[in-house]
Each structure stands twice: as C-alpha cells, then as structure tokens.
Amino acid sequence: MLYTSLARAICLGGMVLFITACQPDKPSMTASTAYTTIEPQQLSQKLTTSQYTLIDTRSPDAFNGWTLHGEQRGGHIPGAKLLSADWITRDLPELDTAYQRTGIQPDQSIVVYGYDREQSTVVANWLVSEMGLNVAQISILKGGYNQWAAIKDNPVDHLPGYHSLVPPSALNEQIKNNPQLKVVEIGWDGGKGNAYRKGHIPSALYWDDLEFEHPPIYELNSVEDIRASLLRLGIDKKTPVAVYSTDSIGAARGASVMKYAGVSDVVMLNGGKNVWSAAGLPLDKGWVQPIPVEDFGVTGPGDAGVVIDIEQAKALRNQHDGALISIRSWEEYVGDISGYGYFQKKGRITGALWGQSGDSAWDMNDYHNPDHTMRNYREIEAFWSQWGIHPDSMELAFYCGNGWRASEVWWYAQAMGYENNQIYSSGWMRWKNDPANPVSKGDITREESLQDWRIASGNQSPGVLAAEKVDVVTTH
Fold first, then answer.
1. Fewer CB atoms near the end CB (10 Å): N or C, the chain?
2. What's this model's pTM, rounded to 2 decimal places?
C-alpha cells in the first residue's frame, strides 16, 4: 500500500514537472522585460500625432489628482486610461472589465507609465502574460509620471473635485492633524453597528441610516430630525466631516444627507472601508461615544441643490432642459424586476434616461474600479453622453429605488465639476406609489429612450443625438 502510494506520487510529480517544462514562458509581474523606453518629449508628440492607448498604472487617487509620491502636479496625462498595478498584484475581481474599459486593440501601440519603471512593468507584464499582447507593442515612459509633470509645458488632466474623494493615506493624516475632524461610519443594521464594532477607522463615530430615513420605503426624515441627529453626533454646519462605509453607496448616502442638512465641509473616503485596510492602516474595535453639540447653525428647509422632492421631480421631468436619470440596473429600468425584496412594483419613470448602476440594487460596479473606488470619470462622461445625458447643459436629478445609488452618482457628478444636478431621493418607490404618475415597462433602445425624454420634456433639439456615436463599453 505504501509502495503503491509512493509510486503514484512519483509519477504525478513527474507529470507536473513535464507539464511545467512544456508551458510557454510568461513574464512575471515584476521581472525586468525588454520593453522599449519612450522619452517624455516623444510622448508629447504622440499626444497629437499617433494612434495609441496610454495606460496609467498608479492608484485611482493619484490618477484623480492627489499628489501622493512627490509629483509637482497632480493628475494624469490627458487621454490616459487607468489600469492600476495594485489591482493586478492583489489579483482583484473585475480585472477583465477594467482591461476592456481601456479600449486596447490587439495590434495597437501601448504607452505605459507609473511612478517608476517597476510599477509600469507590473502592468506591462500582465498585458503580455494574461491579455496576450506582444512585448513589441508596449513602451514604458522614461521617468514615469513625475518626470512628465515636472515639465511645465506638458499637459495634465485631473478630476475637478478630486479633494471630495479622499485616499486612505490623506484621511489618516487629516485624523492626526485636525482635531476638529469628525470621521463617521455609515451603517444600516437598525442602530446596532455590528460591522462598526468589529472594526472601524480610529476615532470614527457611527451613524445608522434610521437616523436619517424611515421605512417602509426609506424616505428621508424631516430635515429638522436629521439636524437633531447630527447634533447628537457632535456635528454642526461648520464641522469638517469625513464619511465612509463598508461600500461607497452607504458613504455617499450619508454624506449627501449631511450636505442636504447644511454641513458645508464633507468628504468621502474613496472606495469604502476595505481600501483603508488594504493600505495597511489599523482598525479599532468597540464604540466611540459622541460628544453632542447644541446649535446646528442652520434652520429652514434642506438644500434643494442636493435633494428634491417628488413635486420638484415632476416639474424637472417636464422641463425643456431637464431630465430624471435612472441609476438602476438594466433589468430594473426595463421592468423585468423591482430590484427590492420589500417593494415589488416594476418599471421606470416615463421619459427618464438610463444612467446605469450595476447588476443589483446594491451593485454599483458600472461606476467602480476593481477596488470599488470611483471609475475613470472620462468613461462615465462617455457613457452619459451616449445615452443623452449632458450634465454641462442639462439640469439633472438622479434617482434609484430610494436614493442610495443616486446619492453615489450625485457625489461623483459633483466631483466631476457638474453643479446643476440633484438627487430625487424618494425615487421609484414614491413615484410608483401614485398611480397617476406616468410609468413605462418593456425593453427599449437608446433612441426610443431619448424619444420618450423628448416627449416628456418637450425638447425636440436634434443636437441631443449628436453623441450617440461615442464608443464606450456597454452591454445595452
């Protein structure tokens, strides 16, 4: 018996060695490979004369505009696509989707850059070993982004409001250096804060969703009640606040509610609690007891530049340059599913344009990178444009079922520099509860969607269709 087992092991081991020996050579993630080097001056010429894809291998926060590694100017080289080396070394899900979003063609020239050659090589090697590109297609920018940014005539691009999406390293420094800062974790388990108790960012307070919204369809509480709850947390209109949750959808909901109530200085951790841990930063256990304050400093209605009610949503739907934007899955938009276990009514607001979201009521992957940070904003703009959504020339109100997904997209729109948009927070659930409100079901094309919007808004301008030829990754 022992002899048989040993013989089998030897045979299997030999087979493994034979198979391994026959495998084609693939570059490792960090092994040095003979990629062509391109000088910044050469790349500057390519920006206007050559067809190629430019890949930024740094973090999403560096891409957005944060100066995290001594660069003289934050941001990225114009036109660059984001494919972070960190996603690859951590082998995150959705890498294939991130690759598809770059638009790389099989025979296209690629220019890769990061902070250094090693970071660039991680991505270059992955493109060769996993995506089948040829080494000869790929060049690496000499000196990386820092050398590019140091040349004052070289253009850089950045997310206009990048400071509203904070990387973990910057938040950690703010916690250390700003004693006035309140860090708040948003949760939704009836006030228990179980996830918070198991591990929260040091000094963070807990704010449950029932402090600002109520069942059965989770509409917002009165603004007076929201302000009273914030006072119990020790927050008034001037308090600097940094918000996070286990995922960005909760953080954005809480952050936007704070802005609606009148808190002027609110930022959000980009990517949720996991990015904090992935950065090697510690979590505390237990409960941090807030110290209440007495005067919020603002009275009267909430900020209508953040949240609008159903009557305002109806008026915007019929406005010549206005639109309601459905931040829901395609299946929800066409009425195949409701999206919620506690609300079974299906369909869409007639004339609402589709702004995508993800595959479920809690999935925002259409707006996320593999690490759940905000997706490249140029790709978001391209999709919006393709579906007739033009935030620079239209007044928009984002909605979903009851405001959570819409809040995240509203937050990103603000970071992108668009101000003429709000959240229709009561969303599909309040709209569908009134049988007099127009609703539609059934599959629909982009052209039909735009036509429904034209009828609702009264806008017959042919220019709205001009962007339909935009090439962007989408399945509909």
1. N
2. 0.91
Predicted confidence at residue 26, as pLDDT, reads 44
Tokens 């406005």 identify what position? Answer: 319
Among 400, 423, 450, 464, the one annotated catalytic: 400
Give the model's pLDDT for residue 11.
Answer: 36
Q: How far is CA 117 from the centre of its chain?
A: 27
Six token digits for residue 104: 């790389």
Examine the pLDDT at 367 and tell me if it is beyond 50. yes
Identity of the residue numbered 18 = F
Whole-angstrom distance, CA of residue 242 vs CA of residue 258: 11
Rounded Cα distance, 23 and 26, in Å: 9
Position 407: which residue type?
S
**Judging by DSSP bridges, how do beta strands 36-38 and 138-141 pair with one another?**
parallel
Tell me the backbone φ, ψ of residue 111, rounded to 5 degrees.
Answer: -115, 120
The sheet carrying 52-56 orders its strands as: 36-38, 138-141, 109-113, 52-56, 81-82
Question: What is the C-alpha separation between 177 and 81, in angstroms, rounded?
Answer: 34
Q: What is the DSSP letter of 76?
A: B
State the Cα–Cα distance between residues 364 and 223, nearest whole angstrom: 27
Indicate the DSSP class of residue 90.
Answer: T
Give the torsion sign (CA, 458, 323, 158, 45): negative
